[in-house]
Design goal:
The mean pLDDT is 94. It is built from eleven helices and eight strands. Helix 2 runs parallel beside helix 11. It is α/β, with parallel strands linked by helices. Strands 1-2-3-4-5-6-7-8 form an eight-stranded parallel beta barrel, surrounded by six helices. The protein is globular and about 45 Å long.
């Protein structure tokens, strides 16, 4: 039975951290081959599962030191039907790997959770296609497509689902509707280009307001991920109602564009301390930000720097 599905603690205040760039850490820092950027393949062996546990523990230890809650996302950003098929997974095997990803986190939660430091388990969903390109599904197709993975999470102890690196509004609407129909709280995280807009050219304001209007406000909150704060901070009018719907940031430390990152053969880890200061500035303008983590090129050092900048009293 899911522990927090009907009572998400991050909606009640306080700070929750999460992890950084799982796939970039595994590939560039640990030398692990991840075909199609699919970290879920590590669940196929005990050695791979142990690598995942070790990865998560670095962040969980940061949360423990700083007295924060934690949103623990599964290693399933690529574990949807199209990417699974490319990697040779049948529907049955793909459903099982999504379930196994949650089970791994349940074990970690039992080791780390404390009454004053709740740990929320979130099923991570990625876009059907490339996280840097616009998708082509309409809302109905997106709802049907993502229902498979969300349905797998619904039968586990996952408390919610979070869709990361979404590039178009129709896919966001489909995810939110599918989650709602399956009784799963959802968070929607858009990725933005260097101009603060989706790759389709639509604004983050339009993305949030349209998704809310078309789903009856189904997402519990919105996030921004896989963009540097300088790419989007000027696009956020802190006093607007739509901005108040943004409760999480998982930024890149690199200021590179998505095209530059895609073509880079090395990892640009940016400056952890600078990233922390930028998060502090964002929180000063947007006090509702409660879920803080990283994305491509970031690791536990960046998340620790974010904690040190935003939670100096706990450092």
């Amino acid at each position: 039975m899911a522990k927090y599905r009907n009572d998400l603690p991050q909606l009640k205040g306080g700070t929750f951290i999460t992890d950084g760039g799982m796939e970039t850490t595994m590939i560039f820092q640990e030398g692990i081959e991840l075909p199609h950027f699919a970290a879920f393949i590590l669940l196929a062996s005990e050695e791979g599962r142990q690598r995942l546990r070790n990865y998560y523990r670095r962040y969980l230890n940061v949360a423990r030191r700083h007295g924060t809650g934690f949103v623990l996302d599964t290693a399933t950003w690529r574990a949807n039907p199209d990417w699974g098929q490319k990697l040779g997974y049948t529907s049955e095997a793909l459903k099982a790997v999504n379930e196994e990803a949650v089970d791994l986190l349940v074990g970690l939660r039992s080791d780390y959770e404390r009454p004053e430091q709740p740990i929320v388990i979130s099923g991570a969903i990625g876009p059907r296609g490339d996280g840097y390109k616009a998708g082509i599904m309409d809302t109905a197709e997106a709802e049907d497509y993502h229902a498979f993975q969300i349905g797998a999470f619904a039968g586990t102890e996952a408390d919610m689902v979070t869709a990361f690196t979404l590039t178009n509004i129709d896919e966001a609407i489909g995810v939110a509707r599918a989650a709602q129909s399956l009784g799963m709280p959802s968070a929607i995280s858009f990725t933005l280009e260097t101009d603060g807009r989706l790759v389709t050219g639509r604004s983050i304001q339009e993305a949030i307001e349209t998704t809310d209007a078309m789903t009856g406000g189904a997402p519990v909150y919105y996030m921004i991920n896989c963009a540097h704060p300088t790419h989007f901070e000027t696009a956020l009018d802190a006093g607007s109602a739509w901005v108040k719907r943004i409760s999480g940031i998982r930024a890149n430390a690199s200021t590179m564009s998505h095209e530059q990152l895609d073509n880079s053969e090395t990892l640009d880890a940016g400056d952890p301390e600078d990233l922390g200061r930028r998060y502090r500035k964002l929180r000063g303008r947007m006090p509702q930000l409660c879920v803080l983590g990283g994305c491509c090129g970031t690791d536990h050092r960046h998340v620790a720097a974010i904690c040190e900048a935003c939670l100096p009293q706990a450092a």
